[in-house]
Design goal:
Number of helices: 1
Radius of gyration: 20 Å
Strand order of the largest sheet: 3-4-1-6-11-10-14
Shape: elongated
Largest sheet: 7 strands, mixed
Distance between the termini: 30 Å
Number of domains: 1
Structural class: mainly beta
Helix content: under 10%
Length: 274
């Protein structure tokens, strides 16, 4: 498989509420910020699904240990659509956390998923196309007392009637500022074809800001000699965490279906300094 990389560029998505807050921060006030976006679309299906379903979930949490010393704002959004005819799917998950002052922590999490079931006739080729992206960003002012973390992941799998995994694909990115544990990768089984359209993975010279961006497009195609009932399931998550005087745990790669044993091809990026 040929893997191509294009010039790096990132576009961090920030909600209007967070933007208003950022512009209101007083000069010199220590602050932390983390944002995470994951999005995926499916299209060009060769078959119309017999049934479709979607789900979304969001959660936020903010703690200020000493009243008046800090403040936290979190935002979590999720949307999911699986249209049956014409057949296409669009869904995304966005999480953002902002904190300033001292003695606080904030957490935001969002999840979106889609599911479609297909009846495939004997001697029929089943195929579809997809496009996905991860966009994560972290920023702190003081490496000794502050922490910002952003994680994004996308996983989809094609299952047979007995829930055996026929094909799978995963995107994952994690930034932990400051500290190690940063990662950005895409992997799949051999029968999923994909190309990296755009990527960025770097930190600022003082390592107080980090960016990871990955945009991928691809397709799946397989011929089935016997009648088959297939289930396509896709899950994406987005998480952010900020704190002052609190150490966060770096989540392990993989979401929901990441326990699946993946084989075939994989690609990862190494972070570079701006």
């Amino acid at each position: 498989m040929n893997i191509t990389q294009n010039a790096s560029k990132t576009a961090v998505v920030i909600s209007s509420g967070i933007i208003s807050l950022l512009t209101a921060v007083l000069p010199g006030e220590a602050a932390t910020f983390a944002t995470s976006t994951s999005a995926l679309s499916f299209g060009n299906f060769s078959q119309t699904p017999v049934s479709v379903s979607t789900s979304t979930d969001t959660d936020t949490s903010a703690v200020v240990i000493t009243a008046g010393e800090g403040r936290v704002i979190n935002d979590a959004q999720a949307s999911a659509l699986f249209n049956q005819d014409p057949t296409f799917s669009l869904n995304r998950a966005i999480s953002e956390s902002f904190g300033e002052g001292s003695n606080y922590l904030g957490f935001a999490e969002s999840q979106a998923s889609v599911l479609g079931q297909f009846e495939i006739l004997a001697n029929t080729t089943f195929n579809f196309a997809f496009a996905g992206l991860l966009d994560i960003f972290t920023s702190i002012d003081d490496a000794d007392s502050e922490q910002a973390q952003a994680t994004a992941g996308i996983t989809f799998a094609l299952l047979d009637e007995t829930a055996n995994v026929l094909s799978s694909f995963e995107l994952f990115g994690n930034l932990n500022t400051p500290g190690d544990g940063d990662s950005l990768f895409v992997e799949s089984t051999a029968n999923v074809d994909w190309t990296i359209d755009e990527d960025a993975f770097f930190s600022g010279p003082d390592e107080l800001e980090e960016i990871a961006f990955l945009q991928v497009s691809g397709s799946y195609s397989e011929r089935f000699t016997a009648p088959s009932r297939l289930t396509l399931v896709e899950v994406k998550t987005s998480e952010t965490f900020v704190s002052q005087k609190t150490v966060a745990q770096t989540p392990e790669p993989g979401i929901v279906l990441a326990l699946l044993s993946l084989s075939g091809v994989a690609f990862s990026l190494k972070k570079t300094k701006a």
